[in-house]
Amino acid sequence: MTLSNQLAPGMTIAVDSKIYRIESAVKVTVPKGPPFIKTKLKNLLSDELVEKNFKLGQEVQIVSLVERRLEFLYLEGKDYLFLDIDNLEQVMVGREVIGDKVNFLKEGIDLRAMFYGETIFSVELPQFLELMVVKAESGEHANPLANATKTALLETGARIEVPTFIESGDIIKVDTQLTEYVQRV
To answer: Which residue from 159, 109, 110 is spatially nearest to 133, judged by alpha carbons?
Structure first.
């Protein structure tokens, strides 16, 4: 437990049996009435942003999330099966937790997952992955001297813009956070 006046952005707290990350916390003083702490909280399961006020000095439950490394195995039904690298147990992760990161999942990729107990709140891909181009549009109409691009379909199902010299079968380095081409490998 901590006091509300010690809350800071980045902390993880439990409110009404839901887990939130503090996005902002500001002390507010009003001419009439006691001061309070105004916070913006992000629900870690639904990504919903809510505002909540705490009385000054009110006790708040701090939650510590545990980071674990997972290796992607395969899609099973609507959920994704991972192997916990530390204890070699299989872990099911729901589609809502994976979100649009599914575009870069392929067998054997390691990622970081944030756990509270046995519940997974978020997963984070490595920033860079090397993936094969399955299909690339023809770039015959593009000016080779300009920074022309074309759309490429990657082995994971993601579609990204690549330079016109990239062909099917090429291995490219992709920035998963920006969803951008980096270089040909």
So the answer is: 159
